[in-house]
């Protein structure tokens, strides 16, 4: 069975706080990131958009409607305008002081706290084509462009858009993870095995359903030299199963549950 083929992770299995500890505090706020740190994550996940004045900020949606008291597209706000919004009350009134987090402030805050903290960074507005260039400028300024391979690098880039990862690799040597949900692992494995698979992808990042549908894909991705980072897994039984299959990293809204699962393995 698939479970008989255990322990194929290529290195330590990583606990990635998805939008912070977003089960317990409003996503992409310092409340959620602080909690994730307290829960001993290895990486913080961050979704990035550019503001009107070309500042990278941490937010998942292309609009502010769901997670703030404002309304409209992120790209139509300046950073100062976003700073005036409340990004916490939607989750609970005690979080009403939560503000937008610029990506640089996230990096500064948590690297200052723990120089070994790592960041799994998703370019969300790659269609605009500027996010990658701004990102590389920011990381270059901070000396974070050349910090190791995918198992050690402070920054790992992720995207559903392969062309975004390609742009990143043209601009830097940052490690990359290709997110996918609808495509099956099997199709992607065939793509890689055909020799036509791209050389700008270091890890595959399937949603967990893709692995449940095709559990042996983990070993086959490994055999092709790719790590496997899966998302978004919040239940202990699913975590235990995926860790036993040998995934290299799990994104979770509940980093406390995943920490216990990794420690108990
Ligand atoms: O980045 C992993 C996972 O977050 C991908 O889906 O929509 O939550 O960004 P989404
Ligand atoms: Ca994401």
UniProtKB/TrEMBL annotation:
It comes from Glaciecola punicea ACAM 611. The chain holds residues 24 to 288 of 354 of the full protein. GO terms for biological process: lipid metabolic process. GO terms for molecular function: phosphoric diester hydrolase activity. The keyword Repressor does not apply. Residues 13-262 form the GP-PDE domain. This is GP-PDE domain-containing protein. Keywords: Signal.
């Amino acid at each position: 069975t698939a479970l008989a083929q255990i322990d194929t992770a290529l290195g330590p299995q990583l606990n990635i706080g998805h939008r912070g500890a977003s089960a317990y505090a409003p996503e992409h706020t310092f409340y959620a990131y602080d909690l994730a740190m307290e829960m001993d994550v290895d990486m913080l996940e961050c979704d990035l958009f550019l503001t009107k004045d070309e500042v990278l900020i941490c937010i998942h949606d292309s609009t502010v409607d769901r997670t703030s008291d404002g309304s409209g597209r992120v790209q139509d706000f300046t950073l100062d305008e976003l700073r005036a919004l409340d990004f916490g009350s939607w989750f609970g009134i005690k979080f009403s002081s939560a503000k937008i987090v610029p990506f640089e402030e996230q990096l500064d805050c948590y690297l200052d706290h723990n120089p070994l903290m790592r960041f799994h960074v998703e370019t969300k507005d790659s269609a605009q084509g500027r996010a990658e260039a701004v990102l590389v400028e920011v990381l270059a300024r901070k000396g974070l462009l050349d910090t190791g391979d995918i198992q050690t690098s402070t920054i790992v880039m992720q995207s559903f858009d392969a062309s975004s990862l390609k742009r990143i690799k043209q601009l830097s040597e940052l490690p990359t993870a290709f997110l996918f949900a609808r495509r099956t692992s099997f199709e992607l494995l065939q793509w890689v095995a055909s020799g036509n698979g791209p050389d700008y992808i270091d890890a595959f990042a399937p949603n967990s359903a893709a692995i449940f549908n095709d559990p042996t894909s983990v070993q086959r991705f490994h055999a092709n030299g790719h790590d496997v980072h899966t998302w978004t897994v919040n239940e202990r039984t699913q975590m235990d199963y995926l860790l036993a299959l040998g995934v290299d990293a799990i994104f979770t809204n509940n980093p406390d549950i995943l920490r216990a699962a990794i420690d108990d393995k």
